[in-house]
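Private note to self, pasted from the team thread so I don't lose it. Backbone tokens:
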């Protein structure tokens, strides 16, 4: 064997070994997150499989820096283990929000903008978790649509009832709503 052939074999072996190690490390990181979510939220294997398939980025996040703080913020608002499972299964991206700023601000803003009680907030977000990851400007745009085009009073009571009963409507693009209305 020539020196070149031996070098090529060594490089090939190195690449195979490093690839196997890298795959093993990724699997370990993913497994630790799965164990944590199963223990912390009571998620079943098929739920975890579904979440990982739809949002694999969640399994790259740190438990201590991202996932646990998000769970703690949601719990501080009164969300139960069952609520958290529902949110994670429907909108796993919500667990990637900045738990120190974005998530609490969104929850408080949603509560204040729509005049929801804490109980109504919990019910609304749990029934439609995509609200957690919608653009903040969308709230104002949708409220403006209902006030200016539909004629709902900007007062909290009508908007509150609409938000509590039909939360997906606040996720809908105002141009789509206008097209339907007109």
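Design output:
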């Amino acid at each position: 064997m020539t020196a070149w052939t031996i070098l090529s074999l060594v490089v090939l072996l190195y690449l195979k070994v490093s690839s196997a190690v890298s795959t093993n490390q990724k699997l370990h990181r993913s497994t630790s997150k799965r164990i944590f979510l199963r223990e912390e939220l009571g998620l079943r294997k098929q739920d975890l499989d579904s979440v990982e398939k739809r949002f694999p980025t969640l399994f790259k996040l740190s438990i201590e820096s991202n996932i646990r703080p998000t769970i703690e913020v949601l719990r501080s608002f009164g969300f139960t283990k069952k609520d958290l499972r529902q949110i994670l299964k429907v909108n796993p991206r919500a667990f990637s929000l900045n738990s120190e700023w974005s998530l609490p601000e969104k929850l408080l803003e949603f509560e204040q903008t729509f005049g929801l009680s804490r109980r109504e907030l919990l019910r609304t977000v749990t029934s439609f978790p995509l609200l957690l990851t919608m653009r903040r400007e969308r709230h104002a745009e949708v409220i403006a649509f209902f006030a200016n085009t539909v004629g709902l009073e900007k007062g909290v009571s009508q908007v509150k009832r609409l938000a509590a009963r039909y939360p997906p409507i606040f996720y809908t693009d105002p141009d789509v709503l206008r097209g339907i209305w007109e």
